[in-house]
Specification:
Blueprint: H1 3-16, H2 18-45, E1 48-49, E2 57-58, H3 62-68, H4 71-103, H5 109-121, H6 124-134, H7 141-148, H8 160-187, H9 192-200, H10 205-216, H11 218-232, H12 237-242, H13 244-249, H14 263-273, H15 277-311
Antiparallel strand pairs: 1-2
Helix pairs in contact: 4-8, 4-11, 5-8, 8-11, 11-15, 14-15
Length: about 300
């Protein structure tokens, strides 16, 4: 068959599926209009100075040069990374332990699945307001319990490190059940014969968890780690709701000492409070590069540990 005829047949085959392509076209149109075009526009905007109303002024790399020397930006990077570390790794470990316990055949498994997943579908604003109430320094539930136990009370929403702990706890509470359900689905694909054979060889629960569960769940662990990295480094609603009153006084606040000022919150204040959309776009692209860097690091670490397991 000649090349011309092959191209004609291929073209005819594509045309014959025009109804199917037409049926799925709304998704791609929405994706292009609301995702792809804004991404490229944001990149274009990062090289402009624009207040949202007047004419744009091309400034080249000036936004990124200012970004490098902006101490508030680097403070937001530091806060974001600390909150991510405090919230992600303990949360994933607890989620894995919960999944192992559910997979062991405890009673009322369906109830626990719903209960653990419920925080993920609850309004984050409502959850943040609830956390604000229980961690309040004056009449919060946590300090009331500490007082009953004759322990010193903590200024949760005034101390810089305690602020990060509260935000990390809020994020962990929201995503622990979600990751536990994912781990549970992965655990149910592991053949029970492996655990039975390990028991016959005298292996205990800890050894089976280390040498069977974790290695076989490594792809799922990598997935949850990447998703948690992407969501954790984009924390915005938590500090915005917790410290919304102080942010109205100082747009760059994020709480006392700017301890809760994350990169997304800093972007929001620069773009929508200061009307500096060009600098806000530069912050967003810096956040994208930071997320990409951490995702690559996580991927390499998990891949390296997998190669070590194969060598053993």
């Amino acid at each position: 068959m000649s090349d011309r005829r092959r191209r004609a047949v291929r073209r005819t085959g594509i045309v014959s599926y025009w109804r199917q392509y037409l049926a799925i076209s709304p998704f791609f149109l929405v994706f292009v209009g609301f995702n792809l075009i804004p991404v490229f526009f944001t990149l274009y905007l990062a090289f402009q100075r624009w207040d949202g109303l007047g004419d744009m002024k091309f400034v080249g790399l000036d936004q990124f040069k200012f970004l490098i020397h902006d101490p508030t930006f680097w403070l937001s990077v530091k806060n974001t990374i600390i909150i991510w570390v405090l919230g992600t790794f303990p949360m994933l470990f607890v989620a894995l332990i919960i999944a192992v316990m559910l997979n062991a055949g405890v009673r009322f498994t369906s109830f626990y699945r719903i209960a653990y997943f419920l925080p993920n579908v609850t309004s984050l604003v409502a959850v943040a307001l609830f956390f604000f109430a229980i961690f309040s320094s004056s009449n919060g539930l946590v300090n009331a319990v500490l007082h009953l136990m004759h322990l010193p009370q903590v200024q949760w929403l005034q101390n810089p490190f305690a602020i990060k702990v509260v935000i990390a706890l809020l994020m962990s509470w929201q995503w622990t059940g979600y990751n536990a359900i994912i781990y549970l689905a992965g655990l149910q694909t592991i053949p029970t014969q492996l655990y039975e054979a390990a028991q016959l060889d005298g292996a205990g629960p800890v050894r089976m968890f280390r040498h069977i569960t974790v290695p076989l769940l490594r792809p799922i662990i990598l997935f949850t780690l990447i998703v948690s990295t992407v969501t954790g480094l984009q924390s915005f609603t938590e500090p915005q709701v917790l410290f919304g009153s102080t942010a109205s006084v100082n747009p760059n606040s994020g709480g006392p000492g700017q301890a809760g000022l994350t990169m997304m919150l800093y972007f929001y204040h620069q773009a929508f409070d200061n009307n500096d959309y060009g600098y806000g776009a530069a912050i967003v692209w810096a956040l994208f590069l930071l997320i990409l860097l951490f995702v690559v690091i996580n991927w390499r670490l998990v891949a390296r540990s997998e190669r070590r397991e194969r060598v053993r």
